[in-house]
Design a protein that fits this description.
The chain starts with 16 loop residues before the first helix and ends with a helix. With 460 residues, it is of the alpha+beta class. Helix 1 runs antiparallel to helix 7. The relative contact order is 0.11. It is elongated. It contains 17 helices and 16 strands. The longest helix is centred in the N-terminal third of the chain and has 20 residues. It has two domains: 339 residues, BirA Bifunctional Protein, domain 2 (2-Layer Sandwich); 96 residues, Anticodon-binding domain (Rossmann fold, 3-Layer(aba) Sandwich). The strands form three sheets. It has an eight-stranded mixed sheet with strand order 1-5-6-11-10-9-7-8.
Length: 460
């Protein structure tokens, strides 16, 4: 019987050494900027209680949660239950109490509430870990992916929004990726909902227009029609979210259209502050007001952001975030406002790879020098070779020995081929009772050097 070929779940991927080196390059770049702006690291568990996760992302988000099957006597518990299971939700809830984290923001809010007596507010944290969503896999969209978040809780100052915009700008400048930072405000969306149909329809409108890039105006209109929005209401919605002009002109027009909405005017005021304050200090950030930007997650309450790469075929979001005033209140800690942003590591990787922006040095192997002998390793005295290896490693130089059998007629053929496959740049050739030879494998240049001279050369 033929064995089934091994595979991995759809929407997940393996990463080889070169890919991991590139991903770490992105992570290290982001982390340096986070630290520069005063953020401190935390980590939270891979899984959370479903009571922590459900109800925080809206109905659409809840459907994408990966649930973890309860272990132990789950079947007996269901079979002996006195309550009849009438639908899929009741069945799911009866066999699962935990789920994989959907994002890093909700676990962070839970962390803040549980540790509120140990942390100092405003609390600035960064977190870089994988998250999971039961989404349909496609290019740039995975079921397992990494997010890199920076959040501030315990302050409602818009100065933190300015910092987060600058973080986006600085990180993508370091990575060489040209981006557009879209900005809107959920208070503005609340004002739009109030004018269109009623403020109680905010989440319905936000979820619908959040799909605008995917299903277009016709698809959004159809969805809203099925939710009992009239043609006039839909036309009013699109008339507002498609306002054109400079940032100042767009906000002035919107101010007229939302003149009867206190909440909407407050949102406009916050955007005016952002533009007025950031302009003298940061001319390189490309900010674009987009009244159709919704960030469908229901916990956002103020400024919201989305970052899109300006080059390459992947024109979807590679970062996003916003202000949330009520999230910790869900866990019993009221009056703590927060704001945060997220970088999508996997999509950023895809953009940089497509645009060929990774530094060439990242393709080098983990070792800088390969020690190889002019005879089979089992035929020589190992002590001097191991001593060379230890001297190199003690100086912080990544090194390894070619340990396999060789062709004594062509002793360097296999070691050089091995070094080439791993992009190891140098070879140290050992022959008993003879001077060491040091070879640059890129140029082929070879010279006789002492181990001290080789170390000095490698440390330059």
């Amino acid at each position: 019987m033929a064995k089934e070929k091994p595979s991995i779940p759809k929407g997940t991927r393996d990463f080889g050494p070169e890919e991991v080196a590139k991903r770490k390059y992105i992570l290290n770049t982001i982390e340096k900027v986070f630290i520069k702006y005063g953020f401190m690291p935390i980590e939270t568990p891979t899984m959370e209680n479903l009571s922590t996760l459900t109800g925080k992302y809206g109905d659409e988000g809840d459907k994408l949660l990966f649930r973890i099957l309860d272990s132990g006597e789950t079947f007996e518990k269901i079979r002996n239950s006195k309550f009849e299971i009438r639908n899929q939700n009741e069945f799911n809830n009866s066999i699962t109490e935990k789920g994989l984290r959907y994002d890093l923001t909700v676990p962070f809010a839970r962390y803040v509430v549980m540790n509120r007596n140990e942390i100092t507010f405003p609390f600035k944290r960064y977190q870089m870990q994988p998250v999971w969503r039961a989404d349909r896999p496609q290019k740039g969209r995975y079921r397992e992916f990494w997010q890199c978040d920076a959040d501030v809780v315990g302050s409602d100052s818009l100065l933190h929004e300015l910092d987060l915009i600058n973080i986006y700008n600085e990180v993508f400048k370091c990575l060489g990726v040209g981006v557009e930072i879209k900005i809107n405000n959920r208070k503005i969306l609340a004002g739009i909902a109030e004018v269109v149909k009623g403020i109680e329809h905010l989440n319905t409108i936000a979820v619908a227009i959040d799909k605008l890039d995917k299903i277009g105006k016709e698809g959004v209109s159809k969805e809203l029609t099925e939710l009992n929005f009239t043609e006039i209401e839909i036309a009013t919605l699109f008339d507002i979210i498609t306002i054109k002009g400079t940032e100042t002109e767009m906000l002035e027009v919107l101010k007229v259209k939302l003149q009867n909405s206190t909440e909407g005017l407050k949102g406009i005021e916050e955007l005016v502050f952002i533009y007025k304050t950031i302009q003298p200090f940061n001319n390189s950030a490309i900010l674009k007001t987009d009244f159709s930007l919704a960030r469908g997650l229901s916990y956002y309450t103020g400024c919201i952001f989305e970052v899109v790469a300006m080059e390459g075929s992947l024109r979807s979001s590679i970062g996003g975030g916003g202000r949330y005033d009520n999230l910790t209140g869900i866990f019993g800690l009221d009056g703590v406002s927060g704001v945060g942003i997220s970088f999508g590591l996997d999509r950023i990787y895809d953009v940089i790879e497509e645009l060929k922006l990774f530094p060439e040095t990242l393709s080098q192997g983990s070792s800088k020098v390969l020690i190889c002998a002019n005879d089979s390793i089992e035929n020589i005295e190992l002590a001097p070779v191991l001593q060379l290896l230890n001297k190199l490693r003690n100086e912080g130089i990544a090194s390894e020995i070619y340990s396999e059998k060789i062709n004594v007629k062509k002793p360097l053929e296999k070691p050089i081929k091995y070094a080439s496959s791993k992009a190891i740049p140098y070879a140290l050739i050992y022959t008993e009772n003879q001077p060491l030879k040091f070879k640059n494998l890129a140029t082929g240049f070879q010279e006789e050097l002492t181990i001290e001279e080789i170390i000095e050369r490698l440390q330059d």
